[in-house]
Design a protein that fits this description.
This protein has 343 residues and is α+β, with helices and mostly antiparallel strands. The chain folds into two domains: 88 residues, Scavenger mRNA decapping enzyme, N-terminal domain (Phosphorylase Kinase, domain 1), CATH 3.30.200.40; 183 residues, HIT family, subunit A, CATH 3.30.428. It is 22% helix and 25% strand. The chain has a six-stranded antiparallel β-sheet with strand order 8-9-10-12-11-13. A hairpin with a 6-residue loop joins strand 8 and strand 9. The N terminus and C terminus are likely disordered. Bound molecules: N7-methyl-guanosine-5'-monophosphate (G7M).
Length: 343
Amino acid sequence: MTSEIVTTGISEPDTQKIPYDLKNFKLSKILSNNTSRKTVVVVGSFPDLSEDDLALIILEKSAFTEENVSTDSKKSFFANLTTVENDLLNNIYGSFRCFPSENDLNGIKTTVVYPATPKHIQKYSMRPKFIIRETPELYEEVTLPFLTKSQFSLDWVYNILEHKQELERIVSEDPDPANGFVLVPDLKWDGKAVETLYLLAITHQRNIKSLRDLNASHIPLLKNIRESGIKAIQEKYGIEESRLRIYFHYQPSFYHLHIHFNPLSNEAPGIFCEKSHLLDTVISNLEMVSDYYKKATLSFVAYEGQELLDIYRKKGVISGPLNEKNGKSEVDEPNAKKLKLDK
Ligand code: G7M
């Protein structure tokens, strides 16, 4: 197997011009506000750019790094306290609101999708969830035709593979067309605290949509991603193999094969058992039965309002009323002009 690992730097600020000014954002709706994850998702617009295009913004308070609390570091919380407000003092207990001056301690990870499609907005809205037990027949009859006609654009994936975007963030790359992949930080990771490290391995092969398409011929690819990914992470971030969670999502949001890497310390969204499939288990299943994922019933989660859920409801697989908005196809258009938002 030809395998070439190139380790480059990450988390250098991107020097591209930002096409919108966050200060001009006008809020239309809060889609979700997760107090334990300290994340809020809002939708609105940049009226200076367009009245019609919608912007989806995810704000997330950053996790602490060890440096943030090290009293040896000039960047630490303790070295940078400007204001300490006293909330309560009672016996041995004290509660304060502290305001550090250092930017690193106050950064808010901000993810923007602009223009956002109705599908993006639906993805981040809080809705009831349902489990769908997808047999191989249901995959062929229902899921596959649906995802073929209606899926998120893969342009961002091809931009990474073709070195058009995120080049400076690449952690390692194996250019082999059959077994190669690119390892990059996930959009969700701020590139700072290794405790919340989140990398994605994206295959150079473009014809594997998801776990469902895997068979024994892909074992060398999967083992290469496993071994080379672990090696690169160990070298660059000092995280041992035994501390890594390496897995697929089913259903994924993007139908080009990719594998998630994060340390166990990162309780990343989507690691719950109805969504994630450990790479080791997938390899082992394929070693035992070469077409395991063609034969298996795979359960996945669908959300209220998702067109796929309604298609399954029409089939009688899931009960519940159909969503009126889903009478028509859920198209991945570049703007969301038709979307009506309640204020
Ligand atoms: O659920 P699924 O397995 O499809 O996960 C896709 C992952 O891709 C998510 O964890 C996203 O945060 C990540 N992602 C999505 N986009 C649009 C980008 C992107 O443009 N760059 C990077 N590096 N990751 C992305």
